[in-house]
Amino acid sequence: MLKLYGGAKSRASIVRWYLEELGIPYEFVLIDLQAGEQHQPEFLKLNPMGKVPVIVDGDVVLWESGAILLYLAQVHGELPKDAAAAAQVYQWVLFANSTLTQAMFPAETRDRQLPPLLKGIETALMGQSYILGKDFSVADVALGSMLAYLQMLFQVDLSPYPAVADYVARLQQRPAFQKGLMGARA
Ligand SMILES: N[C@@H](CCC(=O)N[C@@H](CS)C(=O)NCC(=O)O)C(=O)O
Predict the structure, then answer these.
(1) Domain presence at residue 40
(2) 50 alpha carbon to ligand 1 midpoint, in Å?
(3) Does ligand 1 have an atom closer than 6 angstroms to the CB of 52?
């Protein structure tokens, strides 16, 4: 069975959400981040960077939540075959995990960095339910997780961006979101 290594409150929840969406059975292996278990030799064999999430899927050992999401999407036939269409998925996963995440930290620059990005997401969501159009995809897991974290961790007010606020609310209603992203926080 696929193993997912994560902390109690960590980005492993993003992967958990997608595993729940795909209905893939998995074993969650809790790493005690407070105790520094991620820096122990046993864990560093899985991820030399000493960070979660990590998955072990047969012979495949993989870290970085975005890479894991895209791997799962490809293995389970959820990535478009067309290179240009697939690149749209990569674009949003990378945007969520790099540009958007960097704008969330540090706190001193958050108020300046975030508004232009939220405005851009608002524009992209105009007239559509999900970031790539009418259908839910792995790109929504990457982007929706970061937007949900913005609200949960930093209480960012999304009301100036009604399409973004509606989008996050729509994603939060998904059973897999509740089980994966919220359930893992307990
Ligand atoms: N970009 C990485 C970030 C991984 C990351 O920073 N994980 C944190 C938990 S959310 C971690 O393992 N922290 C422990 C440490 O840095 O010692 C990803 O998306 O997987």
Answers:
(1) yes
(2) 8
(3) yes
pLDDT band at 182 (very low <50, low <70, confident <90, very high): confident
* Ligand 1 atom closest to 36 (CA): 17
Q: How far is the CA of 106 from the centre of ligand 1 (A)?
A: 15
Atom of ligand 1 lying closest to residue 53 CA: 20
Is the CB of residue 11 below 6 angstroms from any atom belonging to ligand 1?
A: yes
pLDDT reported for residue 186: 36
180 C-beta neighbours (distance < 10 Å), count: 23
Q: How far is CA 77 from each of CA 24, 68, 74, 109, 177, rounded to the nearest angstrom?
A: 13, 14, 5, 39, 20
Q: Is the per-residue pLDDT at 58 higher than 70?
A: yes
Mutate to test the pocket of ligand 1, among 4, 5, 11 (most ligand atoms within 8 A of CB): 11
Where in the sequence is the domain holding 106, given as residue range(s)?
83-178
Residues 167 and 90 in one domain: yes
> Is residue 51 situated within a structural domain?
yes
Edge-to-edge order in the sheet of strand 54-57: 26-30, 2-6, 54-57, 60-63
Type of residue at 70: L
Residue 108 and residue 73 share a domain: no
pTM of the model: 0.96
Is there a domain that residue 14 lies in? yes
Which residue, 33, 55, 77, sits at the end of a domain? 77
Tell me, yes or no, whether 88 and 116 share the same domain.
Answer: yes
